[in-house]
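Quick one - first record:
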Amino acid sequence: MTLDRAKTALVLVDVQKAFLEWEAGGMRRNNPHAVDNIARLLAAFRRAGMAVFHIRHASREAGSALAADKPGYRPIDAARERDGEPVLVKHVNSSFIGTDLEDRLRAAGITTVVICGITTNHCVETTTRMAGNLGFDARLVADACYTFDRTGHTGRHETAEDIHAMTLSNLDGEFATIETTDSLLAALDMGAAA
């Protein structure tokens, strides 16, 4: 599998410090190397001069760590934007609602979106589903996103690993192709050689 570098963009969803605060506060997550893998993807796209879009969530919920005036709104250092890389601010789960992401992608001739970020089963999943529904070739990078343990609607404890795996299973084939960082980087390398 190869990817056309001219038609592929990286979309980083909500790689923000609030999630580090949650973890520091005792919330348990999966994929301990996810941010490192996000940084690897970002570095590869930058080296290749490919399109990168940073999505930032600005919560309107009272007391949210993701509110625009809170420290948690800021990007995690490993995924901080550079000059010229657009930062699109959203207020809901989908990166396509209330932003001009779709318009920007189409104007740039992008047909494939590589998606990574936090959290797998919320904004990453919603963005991935919508990308697929809008006709983009969505590639979700499984080891470059993560989520947290949570209590389900029945009161049962659900692990981050199980939530992550089920989210990927729900998306795979129907809305997106599930990738790993290594498989995605290899596809980019093959695309450069083609």
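second record:
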Amino acid sequence: MRIISGKYKGRRIFPPKNLPVRPTTDMSKEALFNVLNNHFNFDSLKVLDLFSGTGNISYEFASRGSAPITCVDGDFGCVKFIKQVSSEFDFDIAATKSDVFKFLDNCKTTYDIIFADPPYGLDQATFEKIVLTVFERELLEDDGMMIIEHSKYTKLEHMSNFSFQRSYGGSYFSFFELNSTDDDEELPHDISKKDSEEDEG
């Protein structure tokens, strides 16, 4: 696992092998951040990383200047590792051990970016609940974005606030924005859907 860009570009991070995680691949991560780079200036973005695992995505945001960053995971080992790495790199990352839905239900902060990487094996209803909870609780800033990583078996295009989707290898990223509508015809969204169809083929 390596940091793709920013202050710590090229630095490798070695999580313990016994963590119950499936880290986002470097290829998928690089592609994701290329998309986000077209939407955001990373400096000072407030980020929430749900099901954060090793903290892979959070380190990338932190290296690019985003802060503060909040990581939420239910596994003690993952939270301990994130705290260790954050201390080593002096990242502004707060790691919290919590059930994600309990955290969201009690959250009173809004974020520019909310990223969620639940276990691919969770059922469709759980993925949908993540989206619904974030928007019902109004946890996104007005110009913010939520991204959910999932497998091809999870379908989120039908949900309110869905904006566009990208796929890289076996990983799919669904993007949600407050002002998205079903008839949104902005060019980046059309390109994204086209790319996904080509990747599937």
